[in-house]
Amino acid sequence: MNMSKLKNKVAIITGANSGIGLATAKLFLKEGAKVVLSGRRQEALDEVAKELEGDFITIRADISIPEDNKRLIKEATNHYGNIDILFLNAGIAKPIPTTEINENHFDETFNTNVKGPILAVKEALPFINDGGTILFTNSIVHQKGFEGLAVYSASKGALRAYARVLTSEVKSRGIRVNSIAPGPIETPLYGKMDLPQDVVEEMGKGFAAQVPLGRFGTSEEVANAALFLASDEASYINGIELEVDGGLSQV
Description:
By secondary structure, the chain is of the alpha/beta class. Helix content is 42%, strand content 17%.
């Protein structure tokens, strides 16, 4: 079987040390891409590097820090030259009721989920090849009102609005901009919610029950959507948000 949908394409993936980002990195490598895996934790990147095969490098960078975005793009392009695929996948979600929202929670969420991707795009654009692809991991949360996710939902709504404008601004260069909106996916994101395990599991059961397919999705299922949108098979797909959510946002 010829696995080369992304042969010799250079892809940068943020939040690549676990979950959706890691699954996508593995799939992109399998399909012949040269991959830059970026994440906040060096030890996580080192662990991941042991299990990957193909042409890749890891770069520790926190997307919420402007200087890290500059360095990420600089190191990536120094190593591989221009960029074909920029997959801005890093994001955080911490549930907090509206009455308990504080400035730290707001800043942390927006710096990672909105400011980070916007500044990363700015740094990367001069190095993205004409005809390249920019991909965001968004979420279905801005389409439905899940309690406790006010700031997270607001951040994802902002990212969706930004992506629309970006789509218009890069059209003359033939760069496609698309977003993936996962529903409940089995990823470490749920472990990072600062909630007791049993609470997370109960939340999970509640979410799964709302999904028409009756289950959580896998990181690999989201990675397949990312591969499609990044490949030439999606050459006329532009400006969309593709829900990968088992139908949760649709019914």
